[in-house]
Design goal:
The structure is a homodimer. Chain A folds into 3 domains: 6-58, lambda repressor-like DNA-binding domains (434 Repressor (Amino-terminal Domain), Orthogonal Bundle), CATH 1.10.260; 63-161 and 297-324, Response regulator (Rossmann fold); 163-296, Response regulator (Rossmann fold). Helix content of chain A is 43%, strand content 17%. The first copy, chain A, contains 13 helices and 12 strands. Chain A has a 6-stranded parallel sheet, sandwiched between helices. In chain A, strands 7-6-8-9-10-12 form a 6-stranded mixed sheet, sandwiched between helices. In chain A, α1 (6-13) crosses α2 (17-24) and α5 (74-88) packs across α13. The N and C termini of chain A lie far apart (79 Å). The A-B interface holds A 1-3, 48-53, 55-56, 61, 71-72, 77-78, 81, 84, 88, 93-96, 98, 111, 114-117, 140, 228, 257, 261, 284, 287 and B 1-3, 48-53, 55-56, 61, 71-72, 77-78, 81, 84, 88, 93-96, 98, 111, 114-117, 140, 228, 257, 261, 284, 287. The structure holds a DNA duplex.
DNA sequence: CTGTTAGCGCCTTCAT
DNA sequence: ATGAAGGCGCTAACAG
């Protein structure tokens, strides 16, 4: 049994199908009597407009695409939650493009930003490479970058945080507590996905050390995949150094958990024998009493969508850059070093 | 500049548009020369078939809908990851309907299982209520239930686990370790979303107690929202009882974390002074060394999609029930009680 | 205010 | 093997 169409409704109500369409779309130019008659017919037939036909006719997909790497990581989930909740009130559907390989990443950058695929695109944390630029600039749909950037993309709206400053804040917090041997556990600075936050935070880390007159020691910097166990390994290596770090800055809370695990394995008390500070302030951070640099993940998704919706409505002519604040959240994994 | 259409390609290649369509769809009945000519035209024009038009013409949405409550909870994320990865290899897109309110839940049950919306529907953990039955049975699209059930829905395929048995396994594990005062921290057994796993595990909990000759004590059962902090509160209340439980079974790993938190607050050593066992085996469980009952979350999503795809291909005539195994994973939060 | 008509881009017969 | 034509369900422009 096929679903009722607009034609069935028109026949049932004894009106033309144009009128039914107007009722569906809340056009004001329909008399109350006919509107009521049409609505009754709709009820009677259990009619629901076919979204596909609607899209084709409108020449819009009524869909927002979100390109997200590793969407199962807590921080991305939180960003997506912001997207989802904001979009739920709109007429747009959400399509998530989960990127877990380079191939998929390149494919998405090229194929998703197209009129036929989505009316607007959100790109999370994947900073485009030079080869992607022409595709993104040539795209006929608005694109908003969240937690991503590229010098040639000044024409795109963005939602960002100052990761350099974030790295500085975290490091400075340890310095202020009296630490002089400060480690940094991060993603690979040069990684195929072109994630840049670890690199930017590294700059902040170096800056803070410099301005405190603390020489940088390469063996205090561990780089590896963004996994808890990897962070644990890197930390273990660092803790084996004779004059090991007394404080460690991890470039995410997930990695900070790996640092804590390593400390546990070494029988080191946190924060007395080792201070640990993370980044993000995901939910578990509170549970662990983890000191961290909070960024507003949920809001980043929310603001990203809002920017996108505004440019879809033509309310934005020139690109905006929305910089979200960072905040040091001091809990129980950092303490003064009096060694 | 509008995207190229099938007509442009036809003109460019000097063929009819039917031929172009055949090339796109890999129809064997096209000569190699014309096929090549068409493909060159496609390249030249940077043509991509319009999915919306395709859907309308085919009368299919090429979309799978997943109705999932609180999709940000780790266990649901893991299920969705199974869905996503399996679907990525197929021609289907995935639409996630995140349910966080009763209204939204009812709306989804009624509006999503429709030909115009999706070709197939996955429903996670939301066991339909009687009022939903006619909508689901009357739906013109295949539906697969994952972690959900209803006596009147024997006609739908399902992926489930034996939660009663799971509850029994967890409780029996504590009994085997010598515990006699065993608490259970769970969701509200009677909850508006009609989640049933906590209730089923409760039955297993009672069964295990019974067969060990241990009387059930209501004050050892705490019910509340599925939140860490709530589980923590419930546990605190339990630990204040003069002869408090020596072992606690939490109906999820998330809630088990709340139990651990409460134990910490009370200065109780786990597992020496309090044994804790969870359910699910989400990623953090390993980190905590949490003893738990593992269920295959990723696979549940995977199998759900596979069942759905098979019935879309007409390979399934009668409904299947796929029961996934449960496994006790003993780690470090449970120990023998010799009190 | 309302009915009619012409597409939206593609797929699928039906002839050729 | 290929071209032409009809239709998927809806919207929007036009005429009344």
């Amino acid at each position: 049994m096929k679903p009722a169409t607009i034609r069935d409704v028109a026949k049932q109500a004894g009106v033309g199908l144009g009128t039914v369409s107007r009722v569906i779309n809340n056009s004001p130019q329909v008399s109350d009597v006919t509107r009521k008659r049409v609505q009754e017919a709709i009820e009677a037939l259990n009619y629901v407009p076919n979204p596909t036909a609607r899209r084709l006719s409108l020449g819009k997909t009524l869909t927002i695409a979100a390109i997200v790497p590793f969407f199962t990581r807590p921080s991305f989930i939180e960003r997506l939650r912001g997207v989802e909740l904001t979009l739920a009130e709109s007429a747009y559907a959400l399509n998530i493009y989960n990127v877990e390989t380079i191939q998929r990443r390149d494919q998405c950058m090229r194929e998703v930003p197209r009129k036929e695929i989505a009316d607007g695109v959100l790109i999370f944390s994947l900073s485009p490479r030079d080869a992607d630029i022409p595709y993104l600039l040539g795209a006929d749909v608005p694109i908003v970058l969240v937690d991503a950037n590229h010098p040639s993309l000044a024409s795109l709206s963005r939602v960002v945080v100052d990761d350099v400053e974030g790295g500085r804040i975290a490091t400075q917090h340890l310095i202020d507590l009296g630490h002089r041997r400060i480690g940094y556990v991060s993603d690979k600075l040069d990684n195929p996905f072109n994630f840049q936050s670890s690199g930017n935070r590294y700059q902040g880390y170096r800056m803070a050390l410099d301005s405190a007159g603390i020489p940088f020691r390469p063996e205090y910097h561990g780089q590896g995949e963004h996994e808890r166990y990897k962070a644990c390994q890197l930390t273990a290596r660092m803790l084996n150094i004779p004059d090991r770090p007394t404080g460690i800055f991890a470039s995410s809370d997930t990695q900070a958990m790996g640092v804590l695990e390593a400390a546990r394995n070494f029988g080191l008390t946190v924060p007395d024998e080792l201070s640990v500070i993370g980044f993000d302030d995901i939910e578990v951070a509170e549970y662990f009493g983890l000191t961290t640099v909070r960024q507003l993940l949920f809001e980043s998704g929310q603001h990203g969508v809002e920017l996108l919706l505004k440019s879809l409505e033509g309310k934005i002519d020139h690109p905006l850059c929305d910089t979200l604040p960072l905040e040091l959240v001091v809990r129980k994994t950092t303490a003064a070093w009096t060694g």
